[in-house]
Design a protein that fits this description.
Length: 344
């Protein structure tokens, strides 16, 4: 059996203890006639992996089992196809989102919301993750990537990009609608740009001056340093902008979610794209709180199309696969400007 290099997690532990170990595991092979085999060119490092690896999300079943190979925003070259594959040929490039497969028969799958499927498989929560050299995926859950799109640009689109796109859509964007984006990292910096494509007036919030400079450069109308002194901070937002029409929350802190809800006008909309406690909610203010999760394969095609046509920027820094532990430490310490990408 051919082997491949992989960064394997055998037990959840703080990233400072280097929990990912470079291993040689069996190279993936096509097992079903509708699968393709990708030789991985790049895999983005998502903040949710940090929570999974450190065991923060055990209570919601992540990771579902160990050992595992993390990584769920993957781009690669098609090196082999199953006998029934029609969507791809050898030599094409393709990407995989966190949705590795779904049943295709349940209510969600039939509605085009396959990412909500109860029996879906998540990329990077089994041995089929992206911190390695090869991955197999059903052709229905892979998306074509243009030949001239750089791998380190394309990989983050498959989680950060689609999450940002879908969150902006969930905020019901319209020209000059005032939308606050809370948290400008790997996902937030993409959301600023997707919102701009829709003509939205973006106000970006972050604790990091660096991230706010990025948001400003990418087209945010205004940026504000987030503060935990909630009353003062809300007063400052009101003085500068009045109440927000909508807010999108990417920062994984309950105080941020709570502040975002309070910064939105009555009857407004708050999109939450993170995991946390249920925030306080005043029913009589008629606000809508909406969750969001990646997106469908159709959404993913749109993300690639928009990024390609509008030349949206993806801020990345690349590292060799073997440095996955170091990269996760940097991510934990907010030392990554937007998205780190591992190159096998």
């Amino acid at each position: 059996m051919e082997k491949m290099r992989a960064m394997v997690l055998s037990e959840c532990a703080p990233v400072e203890s280097n929990p990912l170990k470079l291993s040689h595991i069996d190279k993936h092979e096509i097992k079903k006639p509708n699968e393709i085999l990708l030789e991985i060119e790049a895999c983005g490092v998502c903040h949710s992996q940090l929570h999974g690896i450190e065991g923060d999300w055990k209570d919601i079943g992540i990771p579902p089992f160990l050992p595992t190979v993390p990584g769920h925003e993957v781009v690669g070259k098609v090196v082999e196809i199953g006998k029934d594959v029609t969507k791809f040929k050898v030599g094409d490039r393709a990407g995989v989102t966190p949705l590795l497969e779904a049943c295709k028969t349940c209510q969600y799958c039939k509605e085009g919301k396959e990412y909500l499927c109860e029996s879906s498989t998540v990329t990077g929560e089994s041995f089929r993750g992206g911190y390695t050299e090869y991955i197999t995926v059903s052709e229905d859950f892979a998306t074509k990537v243009p030949q001239d799109m750089k791998a380190e640009y394309a990989a983050p689109l498959f989680c950060a990009g689609i999450t940002a796109y879908k969150a902006v859509k969930a905020a019901e964007p319209q020209t000059h609608k005032k939308i606050g984006i809370f948290g400008i990292g790997g996902v937030g910096h993409m959301a600023v740009q997707f919102a701009k494509v829709e003509g939205v007036d973006v106000i970006a919030f972050s604790r990091s001056k660096n991230h706010l400079n990025v948001a400003k450069r990418l087209g945010a109308k205004d940026t504000m340093v987030f503060s935990d002194s909630q009353d003062e901070f809300l007063q400052e937002i009101k003085a500068k902008h009045g109440m927000l029409d909508a807010a999108i929350v990417f920062a994984p802190a309950d105080i941020v979610t709570d502040t975002a809800i309070k910064a939105v006008k009555k009857g407004g909309l708050i999109v939450i794209a993170t995991v946390g406690k249920n925030p306080e909610f005043m029913a009589f203010e008629e606000k809508t709180i909406r969750g969001t999760l990646i997106g469908s394969t159709k959404d993913m095609e749109q993300v690639i199309k928009i990024c390609n046509e509008k030349n949206l920027e993806v801020i990345t820094e690349t590292y060799p696969l073997e440095e996955a532990n170091e990269v996760l430490k940097k991510l934990k310490n907010s030392e990554i400007e937007a998205r780190a990408v591992l190159i096998p």
